[in-house]
Amino acid sequence: MLKTEQSLPSNPLSIAICTSVILVLVLLASCGSHSSNDDPAKSTEVPVVKVERKNITRTLQIASEFLPYQEIDIYAKVSGYIQKLNINWGSHVKEGQLMAVLEVPELEQQLREDEAALGRSENELARAQQEQARVESDYTVAHVTYTRLEGVWKSQPGIISREDLDVAQGKDSEAKASVSAAKAALHAQEQGLAAARATLGRDQAMFSYARIVAPFDGVVTRLNAYTGALLPAGTSRSQGDLSLCRLSQNDLLRLVIPVPERSVPSVHIGDSVAVEVSTIGKTFQGKVVRFSDQIDLTTRTMHTEIDVPNSKYILVPGMYASVKLPVQTVGQALVIPVQAVQSSGETRGSVMVVSNGNTLKREDVVLGLRTSTDVQVTSGLQENETVIFGEQSQYKPGDHVTPKVVQPPSAD
Q1: Can you state the percent helix, strand and coil of the chain, rounding each to 5?
Q2: Of 96, 100, 136, 149, which has the maximum CB count within 10 A?
Q3: How far apart, in whole angstroms, are the C-alpha atoms of residue 257 and residue 275?
Q4: DSSP letter at 226?
Q5: Distance CA 182, CA 257 (A)
Q6: What is d(CA 112, CA 361) in angstroms, rounded to the nearest whole number?
Q7: pLDDT tens digits, 315-361
Q8: 50-to-56, 58, 350, 371, 410 alpha-carbon distances in Å
Q9: With contact defined as beta carbons under 8 Å apart, do 52 and 181 qualify?
Q10: How far apart are alpha carbons 252 and 310 in whole angstroms?
Q11: The overall pTM is greater than 0.70
């Protein structure tokens, strides 16, 4: 009778293979019986944000550079040597402040001549006035004498002769003519005095230009002449570099920005705008103060100017700035961060909504106004609903999650 005996494989390689197969089967069984999606205690933590209502504004960002509010070259009205110089590069001056004094010998001599001529005219006028008074007195005596003789001649013709009456009449007419001549001479002297005064006033005005003063508050950004230099009169068109200095008003700066045609209707005088200066890491408030009110046919933009106060002279003309011009605003709109939306078109997209049971569901939404950080939702969501913030490709509807509210980054 044959006896059959069953035994395990004695080959070591076979034993190792069997052991590995058993371990794989055990691991698969363990994984299959503990699914993370089926165990609420093992749900995934996800970042979420709330759907909220707030004002949303779309801005137009345009780069430009600061310009002085006004900038001019200071020229001399009269030619002269710089006798005294009170300014230098970077000097801050006030309106009316004395910047330089010129030495003009020719004008000084001319003023002395004008003063002498004025004194001479005043003396001649005085003499003319005295002469007029004398001839008027003579005329009074001659006229009274003639009048009396004429009365006697009419009442008693035989007392005086006709010849005496004629002589008295002649003296009366001569004295009257002398009065008229004296009046004319006096008038001429008065005109001569007025001309002398006008000449003196003109030369005094010209001499006053030897004192060069600041026409407005500003900064000397360039100095072209120094003490002792001859400064020509800036009366010709070919002035070149003959100015004393260049003066810039920097306590108020202006930004010139080209506003695109599509945004022109949104620009209004008085609008407040944010002006970001990256070189110093600060943002300033400016105001739209003027625009050309006409589209440039070449660039299809409108010349627009923004004034930026600079009382502390933190800003310097030539610095670059970025202007954020508000072009569209919607009040109390339903808003979510742009990172919470998967866009599928200009006004379409989808979001992952966390339901009350902390399970996910996908919702299609209609989008409205969009900014760099937020987007308006016009349809598909309600206020205070919770949506996933950030990448959504690793989630699918029905997943059980643990929401964690995060704070989205704000715009700079």
Answers
A1: 35, 40, 30
A2: 100
A3: 12
A4: -
A5: 73
A6: 100
A7: 999 999 999 888 888 889 899 999 999 888 888 999 999 988 889 99
A8: 16, 21, 15, 18, 15
A9: no
A10: 5
A11: no
